[in-house]
Write a structure and sequence with these properties.
By secondary structure, the chain is mainly alpha-helical. The chain has one domain (9-304). It is built from 13 helices and no strands. The chain has helices at residues 9-17, 22-38, 44-71, 85-88, 93-119, 124-143, 157-178, 186-206, 208-213, 219-223, 225-250, 262-274, 282-304. Helix 2 runs parallel beside helix 13 (282-304).
């Protein structure tokens, strides 16, 4: 039951949506769309549908995480991060399940429409592939903490985030818009994917002690906090190499405008060096997420100037 200090229903749902994660979710779509635009292609309808799809999927994932961690007992008084809505009792488990069904349906409608419109003039194999990917995205959004074999509890969260936020998001919308493929776009997709994984790694470093006690075997729990710090530095530094490589291979040097986001990321790295303490890492989650979004925006700007 919700306590007397529980937030209003509207505020509770907004907290459950975790709005601060939404800019990160659309970063890949911005980069992939910008790449397609630079190649001479661009469809505003596909862009809008892609944005709605990833936003629905991100909210779906956040709601499923809220419920999944609550059902498994991971969200408890020892958790360092903000109190979740199901955990606090502000939203009942039954209401959360209904919301999950709703956003799964919205994701299916939006993603299915995107796949249909984007592939209607392409081969049957590609059409089927994108329909399957739409279903896979929904399954991945729910499966991070839900179910007996939730992949977030098996240390696979980083890999899935890299794939879906980076490779699939950037490359997928590029293919749907450009109706073709260019291997070099894997480089900016890798940059977005690595930074997205860095946000999850920060989250898992913050909660690693409670996760270990709750049998949530994230990658941080598996490799230890010290190694997770080293891994975090790699996640933030490798995107620089990826973006410089892309600029060199394409001779599109304006794309390096995206590296201005490292003004914020550099400060973040210094903070982590000086404060390698789980309790202080929560404040850094939004900084890395916003920096990734800023990188995507700057990359997009470079493609249209």
């Amino acid at each position: 039951m919700a306590s007397n200090n529980s937030p209003s229903p509207t505020k509770a749902w907004l907290q459950a949506f975790r709005l601060r994660t939404l800019p990160l979710s659309i970063s890949g779509i911005l980069v992939g769309s910008a790449l397609a635009f630079r190649a001479g292609h661009g469809e505003i309808l596909l862009f809008v549908l892609a944005l709605f799809t990833v936003l629905f999927l991100q909210i779906l994932s956040n709601l499923a995480n809220d419920l999944g961690d609550n059902l498994k007992g991971t969200d408890n008084e020892n958790r360092i991060g903000p109190e979740r809505s199901t955990q606090s009792g502000a939203i009942s488990r039954e209401s959360m399940k209904k919301a999950i069904y709703l956003f799964a349906a919205l994701s299916l409608i939006s993603g299915g429409t995107l796949a249909y419109l984007g592939t209607r003039h392409m081969g049957v194999e590609i059409q089927i592939t994108f329909y399957v990917l739409a279903l896979a995205c929904i399954a991945a959004a729910i499966g991070y903490t839900m179910g007996k074999k939730a992949y977030g509890y098996l240390g696979l969260g980083d890999l899935f985030v890299f794939m879906f936020f980076g490779l699939l998001s950037v490359c997928g919308i590029y293919i749907l818009m450009a109706k073709t493929w260019d291997w070099v776009i894997v480089l900016p997709a890798t940059a977005i994917g690595l930074l997205s994984a860095a946000v999850l790694n920060l989250n898992n470093m913050r909660d690693h002690e409670n996760d270990a006690r709750s049998n949530k075997n994230t990658l941080v729990v598996k490799i230890g906090f010290v190694n997770a710090l080293k891994y975090h530095f790699a996640l933030l530094l490798l995107p620089i190499i990826a973006l410089i490589s892309y600029a060199a291979l394409t001779e599109f040097w304006w794309s390096l405008l995206a590296l201005l986001s490292y003004i914020i990321l550099g400060k973040h790295l210094l903070f982590v060096v000086k404060n390698p303490i789980p309790e202080k890492l929560d404040s850094q989650l939004s900084k890395v997420a916003i920096s990734t979004f800023l990188m995507a925006v700057l990359f997009g700007v470079s493609c249209v100037i």
